[in-house]
Amino acid sequence: xxxxxxxxxxxxxxxxxxxxxxxxxxxxxxxxxxxxxxxxxxxxxxxxxxxxxxxxxxxxxxxxxxxxxxxxxxxxxxxxxxxxxxxxxxxxxxxxxxxxxxxxxxxxxxxxxxxxxxxxxxxxxxxxxxxxxxxxxxxxxxxxxxxxxxxxxxxxxxxxxxxxxxxxxxxxxxxxxxxxxxxxxxxxxxxxxxxxxxxxxxxxxxxxxxxxxxxxxxxxxxxxxxxxxxxxxxxxxxxxxxxxxxxxxxxxxxxxxxxxxxxxxxxxxxxxxxxxxxxxxxxxxxxxxxxxxxxxxxxxxxxxxxxxxxxxxxxxxxxxxx
Length: 322
What we know:
With 322 residues, this protein is of the alpha/beta class. The protein has two domains: 9-55; 62-315, 2-enoyl-CoA Hydratase, Chain A, domain 1. The protein contains 14 helices and eight strands. The chain has helices at residues 11-30, 35-54, 58-65, 73-80, 122-128, 135-150, 168-172, 175-188, 203-207, 228-236, 242-252, 256-262, 280-298, 303-315, and strands at 82-87, 99-106, 109-116, 155-161, 193-202, 214-218, 222-224, 267-269. Strands 1, 2, 3, 4, 5, 6, 7 and 8 form an eight-stranded mixed β-sheet that branches. It starts with 10 loop residues before the first helix and ends in a 7-residue tail after the last helix. The model has no long low-confidence stretch (mean pLDDT 92).
């Protein structure tokens, strides 16, 4: 994995990790036992990770959600699923690599998996368009959802995008219509749908994969109608300063605990100490178990009841009673 910048609040953790690694290296070279010296350092490192990630601000959670070190859709497909067969193209214009999807098995059961894919290095970022789909990406996703419905297989989606691509070509090919069509069709799909926000869920580009029977979020992921930079620029004419971005992040209520409290998401999946990027295998195992449990519950519902409950779930959002 390519080296990625260290976030400011992570620097004490990284410095301590380097001390531990250096001590291990020297011990290996000199063939000496350093267990007594390592134990307090490792305990301190574990405690520091826990404390730092327990007290993250909303803006810091945004930074964590955007990390290139976090596991992406492709990582979860490799670690949590088996027998993945990728399907390509929307059958109208072209293949959009910002969304990947295909058949896979979850605990032996066949499912259709669809998710945003960002890319980690420059070459992959450009190929994946930084995880920002064009209309053909959403039309590919819809094609795969309808294919899953045809074969009565559940749909699992992973949300991780700053938003849909706002370029001229995307607008010419009907970006807003493609997103709106997905919202409509997902609300009527007669198979179980489970969506998980694994990183940054931004605007309609995220919601186009998010109309699901169960919406899950990883502990340090974020989900909002606009980016913190965009919000700060519109409301306070300053999308660059840390102060304004921090103010926007607090106002947007975009963290997993906030959205669980508001009823926008149904469950928050705890991440390993130090975030999902610290242990890909552990978070993949937690996600696999949660998805299997949620799908097992949804499979018990008849299609008409499934659709009715899904529509009611989204229609009641934003209703408040005094």
